[in-house]
Amino acid sequence: MMSINKIVAIFFMVTITSCAQEKTYNEDVISYLNSNGTSSQYEFAYDELLKMLEDKFPKTKENSKSWEFLDNNKEKYVAEMTSSLVPVYQKNFTEEELKKMADFYRSPTGKQLTADRSKMTEDQKNKLNDFYKSEIGKKIIDKQPVLSKDIAVVSENWSRDLYETALSLLK
């Protein structure tokens, strides 16, 4: 018969292994979102929101601390957004699929695609077509309607919360 100490030790080992795997999976999703340009899009959205707010609430001595906070916390808010997208991608893709997707976007073809699609070479266009003809590419296309819907909900919540936070700081 197994002692209580052995059972507890096995439980903790399983729990630690499970948490480590979950952390790696989360990191894979975030790596993908960083490599495919998603994080950059939210950085741009953050910058645009601040520009809009600056028109309404110009920087003054009275609100300088609030503006400083908003200027210094862009990375934090963008990281929160990408973390909010993790469950959306985990629901639709395996860890291995996410690694393949991130690998593609870290390739010269993927980097050019996110930088400026119009400047892709014929070879890069062929590699892009090959990627979307692959099983993972087909799955991405198949999942696009669901992803778009779920991402829109998360993005809307993030934008609203960020806007409300900024307004409360600047009023």
What Rg, in angstroms, do the CA atoms define? Answer: 21 Å
What is the succession of H and E elements? Answer: HHHHHHHH
In the predicted model, the low-confidence regions spanning at least 5 consecutive residues are 6-21
Counting DSSP E segments of at least 2 residues, the number of strands comes to: 0
Shape call: elongated
Note the gap between the termini: 67 Å
Q: Per DSSP, what share of the residues sits in E-state strands of 2 or more residues? A: under 5%
The overall average pLDDT, rounded, is: 88
- Largest beta sheet, briefly? none
The number of helical runs is 8
Instruction: State the share of residues found in helices, binned by percent.
Output: over 70%
SS-derived structural category: mainly alpha
Structure, described:
- By secondary structure, the chain is an all-alpha fold.
- It is 87% helix and 0% strand.
- It has eight helices and no strands.
- It has helices at residues 4-35, 38-56, 64-72, 74-92, 95-106, 108-116, 122-133, 135-170.
- α4 (74-92) packs antiparallel against α8 (135-170) and α5 (95-106) packs across α6.
- The chain is elongated and about 55 Å long.
